[in-house]
Amino acid sequence: MHKVQVARVREIPEITRLLWSIGKTGMSTEHILDFDVWLVVKDREGKIIGCDALERSGKLLHGHSLAVAKEYRGQGVGSALVQYGFDHYVNRGDTRVVFTYFWNRDFYERLGFTRADSKFYKNVDDIGRRELHKSSMTLIRKKE
Ligand SMILES: CC(C)(COP(=O)(O)OP(=O)(O)OC[C@H]1O[C@@H](n2cnc3c(N)ncnc32)[C@H](O)[C@@H]1OP(=O)(O)O)[C@@H](O)C(=O)NCCC(=O)NCCS
Where along the chain do its domains lie? Predict the structure, then answer.
């Protein structure tokens, strides 16, 4: 099982570099300092190989910027990050929301998320307005 840790503010530059290295154009880091908590998984040398950010808005816990370095994918790092956030930061009655690319739907559904109404979540808070774009969809997982 992968050890998930809460990152320190001084580790944000390293998280930024990981996000920039994902995909052809990199993942956005525009709101990186707005997030409430950064979760990371490190390799044996202490290098960050996976990250996931959480941002609270009322009873919604938004997940952002989930990324795992290419050479470490398919080993449960992404799942461990999402599950840790759910176990430690989702309170009773909360809903965790992700606005993710269409092609990641299966990944989140395996973790218990279901598709939700994007129009509703787009209007529910500023985060929805900021994060929803044309290649994304909304998935939610509620706290039982
Ligand atoms: C999506 C991502 C975080 C998954 O990380 P990961 O560490 O490879 O995920 P896991 O190893 O925990 O995978 C869990 C399961 O989901 C599957 N899976 C992983 N990524 C998937 C995808 N994009 N589509 C469908 N299934 C996927 C895995 O095969 C695995 O299945 P299994 O349980 O049957 O073995 C990683 O592929 C990534 O960084 N992608 C680029 C950035 C991105 O798209 N981030 C999310 C949107 S913000």
Answer: 4-142
C-alpha 5 to ligand 1 mean position (Å): 19
What is the residue type of 77? V
Contact 55, 43 (CB under 8 A): no
Residue 40 CA to ligand 1 center (angstroms) comes to 15
Report whether 51 contacts 43 (CB < 8 A).
Answer: no
Q: How many CA atoms lie within 13 A of 91 on its CB side?
A: 5
For residues 112 and 64, is the Cβ–Cβ distance under 8 A? Answer: no
**Mutation to probe ligand 1, out of 49, 65, 107 (largest number of atoms < 8 A from CB):** 107
CATH architecture entry for 4-142? 3-Layer(aba) Sandwich (3.40)
pLDDT digit string (tens) for 5-23? Answer: 999 999 999 999 999 999 9
Q: First-to-last CA distance in the chain? A: 24
pTM for the full predicted model: 0.95
